[in-house]
Please model this.
Amino acid sequence: MFKFKNIINSQSRTITSAAIIIGALSLVSRLLGVFRDRILASHFGAGDTLDIYYAAFRLPDLVYNLVVLGAISAGLIPVFTSLLAEASPLNRKKQEAWRLINSVLNFIIIGLLLICGLFFVFAEQIIPLITPGFSAEKLALVVSLSRIMFLSPVLLGISAVLGSILQSFKQFFVYSLAPIFYNIGIIVGAIYLVDEWGLYGLAWGVVFGALLHLLIQLPTVFSSGYRYRPILNWRDKNVLRVGRMTIPRTMTLVLNQLNILLVTMMASTLAAGSLAIFNLANNLQSFPLGIFGVSFAVAALPTLSVLAVKKDLGDFVVALSSTFRQILFLIVPVSVLFYVLRAQIVRVILGAGEFGWLDTRLTAASLAIFALSLFAQSVLPLLIRAFYALQNSKTPFYLGLVSLAVNLIALLFFCWVFSFDNDFSFFTAAILKISDLRLVADLRILALPAAISVSSIVNLILLLIWLRFKIGRLDGRKIIDSSLRILFSALGAGLITYSLLQLLNLIVPTEKFLGIFAQGLLAGLGGLAGYWLLGWLLNMEEMAIFVSAMKKKLLKKVSPAVAEDVAREGEGV
Model:
């Protein structure tokens, strides 16, 4: 029991060790998410029902992202962490930190109740604006499901504030358990509640998952010293600091949500099931994105915030550069494998019941396009959090405006590319091996992942350039050297995977699930082994860091950390 308690309350000393904890539990959560999607796909297929379900998510998700994520990631964690870094038994900074948490929590609760209440009342007027292509019957169901789901942002908002405490104290274990329980709630809704309440059971499953997301964090939050107080002091200087940083961050999230709304609006005008196909492909690519990109970004924010407060830009650059390279080391080979094995991945995970071969091919093609930009999407959360650690949330907003414009232009361009009335579409269809679908499918659905991919890469380039001017240097030579080694090894792994896939096609029957699963698994493992071998031959530093961190996590006893070694954070990322 003692050891389990130490695991629950343990603090991570380095960014990589923290990312391993977050990534491992994120893997469990993502696997549950894949299981959830398989259940939904097998029960309903890519058609009107899932279109309604995913469309109903839009407004509640919009509220949560705008009201909560802006305050938490951009303002609350950097300010709260800076107060903890300055705290000692001889000053009152820790009391200020707890007052800040309570004030922000109460503001978020009140704000969410008001906003969700307004959206609940005016849902019938707002929903048609984001799904203009839906019929009246589909719109009515979207409105009903959205109204139920408006309970989830309130619960998730409270949970997010409590989660910021765990992140700031580097207690990532319980924090990373919360998404697992969220997915469990949705799965319960899909398996048990749908039989009783139909499509409404899915909506109540989302609410149940949000409740579990909150409850799992409460014991550890209270053990860290937090006590709720009905404080609502908008004049508090720390609350004002959070507010000043939150506004640009919220505007950035508005841009992100506009991107999603543009995609939703476009998908609603295409063939039935287009929105479901996009969401299923996006969920699949979010699997490695969450495990590697988001995990390292979340793990890095407290450390980068402390280094920024201490104005130690040298160690700040070392920590940022090392984490950047570590993400690339993990995500680039996965991107290559996702591209090569896209059909096997989609068929194994989603190919059951009503999810047919046409759905599989379109989803696989969308996943292939997403794979081309996975590297950019994975490092974007880290770079954005680097700006937040520097208490600069305006720059990501300004650059986000440019990315939004790029996304809109790219969306229009790719809709033309994938339409049936131009010669160029034959070339693009041939590359993705989907030319046989041209007679039976609307390929314009592929414009959605293509536009997001292009805008993500542009956003990455702009953030890197701006960050270079902000902190003076980015250890660029080392990043370029490591990136070339990683890319060479990943392409070699892709070639090995493709060769094994062709060989296995001759000897493994792929008419049934087990054959497709064995084909993808063996080819993927061969590719990963090839990547590891090439990385070892090229003496990749990131591989040594990752192996060292894994050994420490697996072989050493867990004990709570009581101090922060800044140099170790920078060098042992």
In short: The two ends are 30 Å apart (CA to CA). Residues 66 and 250 are 5 Å apart (CA to CA). Residues 557-573 have pLDDT under 50 and may be disordered. The chain has 23 helices and no strands.
